[in-house]
Specification:
Shape: elongated
CATH class of one domain: Mainly Alpha
Largest sheet: 6 strands, antiparallel
Order of helices and strands: HEEEEEEHHHHHHHHH
Number of helices: 10
CATH architecture of one domain: Up-down Bundle
């Protein structure tokens, strides 16, 4: 009987422990709401304990503008971006699952109005100075974004092989973007074939480099969060490869179209020019383009990775160790693969264009000029 009572007593005695354990694993609840600052104290500077680094903090009072707490006023300490009265921001409200305590922090200042203004300015300038061609380019941009957000991203999150869906989306962006912007003609087709050929060669090199360098894909906090949010179902190495290939398109598109147009103009300008002659002259043009774009590409990457360069400059373990670090090595792979693709795009596209556009030889008139209008013979 005593043993029986003991067996019944165990669950009763263990209930508080079970309840505590359940409470410990219950996640905090978070909401993000738009708010506006109604009062702000002057910023004070304090040292982060044990770091020797100063941080600024202030006491904010804000009114919630939307969500379940709309109209409520909250006061809290802000040690993120310092705000002033009238500023709008996104407020993060965290409720502790153990004791119900509420915490408020600044998630991000409201930036959508600035982004909207820049987008409108960009669109107006494209229409005014780019004309119809600029509008077609903008439509092409929208098409590329649609493919990325409605094909690439859902495909990756849906569990499809990252490698193949990236290659497929890249090809679609090249084809759709090129024909929308430059029309259905053989010059555009030559550029498209040149880009696809360059992507295949550069993609094989990128695939080898990512695996040979043993890059894991964990080169930022976002990669770690993504891995946890998707329960490890996404191949981050393949995702890194995909990012490199998508990034390559920006510079490759420019140089491929430029080379195809150069070959077209050379053929139209002189009927005496042989295929080899046109190829050599177009390569000469391409070399100048390469010189400018390689520098542009490298500087763009340097600007994006400036904090990383500062880490290298202040490294205490030596430059070789720092460069070998995965974060830095990943950025170098991006730069080098992009630059290699840029260089390869010139001879590949030029070679294809000299064959596909040969029928245009001498069609530019006596002065060798034309208005970029295509006859029926130019259509694909």
């Amino acid at each position: 009987m005593r043993n029986l009572l003991f067996l019944f007593a165990i669950p009763v005695l263990a209930l508080p422990a079970f309840a505590a354990a359940q409470a410990q694993v219950t996640p905090d609840t978070q909401t993000i709401e738009l708010a506006q600052v109604t009062a702000a104290s002057a910023a004070t500077s304090t040292e982060i304990a044990g770091t020797g680094t100063q941080e600024e903090s202030q006491i904010l009072t804000a009114t919630v503008l939307d969500g379940a707490e709309k109209g409520q006023s909250v006061t809290f300490e802000n040690d993120y971006t310092q705000l002033k009265v009238g500023d709008t921001f996104y407020l993060r409200h965290t409720s502790n699952a153990l004791d119900g305590t509420d915490y408020y922090t600044v998630s991000d200042p409201y930036r959508l109005n600035i982004l909207e203004a820049l987008a409108v300015a960009f669109l107006v300038l494209v229409v005014v100075f780019g004309g119809l061609q600029g509008v077609r380019g903008f439509v092409s941009l929208l098409g590329s974004l649609v493919l990325i957000f409605y094909v690439l991203v859902p495909g990756i999150l849906g569990g499809y092989p990252v490698l193949w869906i990236t290659v497929g989306t890249t090809a679609l962006i090249i084809i759709v973007g090129s024909y929308i912007t430059h029309g259905f003609n053989k010059t555009t087709s030559a550029a498209v074939l040149g880009m696809l050929g360059t992507v295949l060669v550069t993609g094989a090199l990128a695939y080898w480099a990512v695996h040979a360098a043993q890059l894991s894909g964990y080169n930022s906090e976002e990669d770690v969060y993504l891995n946890f949010n998707t329960h490890g179902t996404i191949d981050l190495v393949a995702l890194l490869f995909g990012g490199i290939m998508i990034g390559l398109l920006g510079v490759l598109y420019d140089i491929a179209i430029g080379q195809a147009i150069a070959v077209e103009e050379l053929y139209r300008a002189g009927s005496h020019m042989t295929r080899a002659h046109v190829y050599r002259r177009a390569i000469r043009i391409g070399r100048e383009h390469i010189g400018a774009l390689v520098n542009t590409l490298a500087i763009a990457y340097v600007g994006a990775a400036l904090p990383l360069l500062l880490v290298v400059s202040s490294a205490t373990y030596g430059i070789a160790y720092t460069i070998n670090n995965e974060i830095f090595a990943t950025e170098l792979v991006r730069i080098l693969i992009g630059s290699i693709g840029l260089v390869l795009g010139v001879p590949i596209t030029t070679f294809i264009a000299t064959y596909t556009l040969e029928h245009l030889r001498g069609t530019g008139g006596a002065d060798g000029l034309h208005a970029h209008t295509h006859s029926a013979a130019d259509d694909v």
